[in-house]
């Protein structure tokens, strides 16, 4: 039975007059809405697929059994620009390869002195 006390047949009949076709999707376990800062998970909702001639399909989500909201962690990592001069300086000071020097600079946020100390302490 669909929400609002209407059976699928009654709703279908009512909407047929408007040219709108409605189908209930069976077996929907969850619907996930992904936002930039939040994720909303709707558990076992009623999902209706709506068809209007000449229009893209639309979906209506009704009466989930549970709603879970999750905050998303900031996944924005600024791209660190390393100069070749910095990489060469760290490599020369530590005797490590430029690849290791670049990795150390990335892990220290571009801090040359910290990268040198890190490689000297931990080795290449």
Question: Could you walk me through the main structural features you see in this protein, from its secondary elements to its overall organization?
Answer:
With 124 residues, the protein is α+β, with helices and mostly antiparallel strands. The protein folds into 2 domains: 3-71, Ubiquitin Ligase Nedd4, Chain: W, CATH 2.20.70; 84-122, Helicase, Ruva Protein, domain 3. Helices cover 33% and strands 27% of the residues. It has helices spanning 8-16, 84-94, 98-107, 112-122; strands at 21-25, 30-34, 38-43, 46-51, 58-62, 66-71. The termini are far apart. The mean pLDDT is 85.
List descriptors.
3-stranded antiparallel β-sheet; Helicase, Ruva Protein, domain 3; Ubiquitin Ligase Nedd4, Chain: W; alpha+beta; 33% helix; 124 residues; 2 domains; 27% strand; rod-shaped; 6 strands; 4 helices
Secondary-structure blueprint of this entry?
Elements (H helix, E strand, L loop, with lengths): L7 H9 L4 E5 L4 E5 L3 E6 L2 E6 L6 E5 L3 E6 L12 H11 L3 H10 L4 H11 L2
Antiparallel strand pairs: 1-4, 2-3, 3-6, 4-5
Structural domain count: 2
CATH A-level architecture of the largest domain:
Single Sheet
Count of individual beta strands = 6
- The percent range for strand residues is 25-35%
> Oligomer, anyone?
single chain
CATH-defined superfamily of the largest domain: Nascent polypeptide-associated complex domain
Residue share in helix? 25-40%
- CATH topology assignment of the largest domain: Ubiquitin Ligase Nedd4, Chain: W
Return Rg in Å.
29 Å
Low-confidence stretches: none
What general form does the structure show?
rod-shaped
Query: Class by helix and strand content?
Result: alpha+beta
Q: Tell me, rounded to a whole number, the average pLDDT.
A: 85
Q: Give helix and strand order, one letter per element, not per position.
A: HEEEEEEHHH
Discrete helix count? 4
CATH level-1 class of the largest domain? Mainly Beta
Largest sheet: number of strands, sense, barrel closure: 3 strands, antiparallel
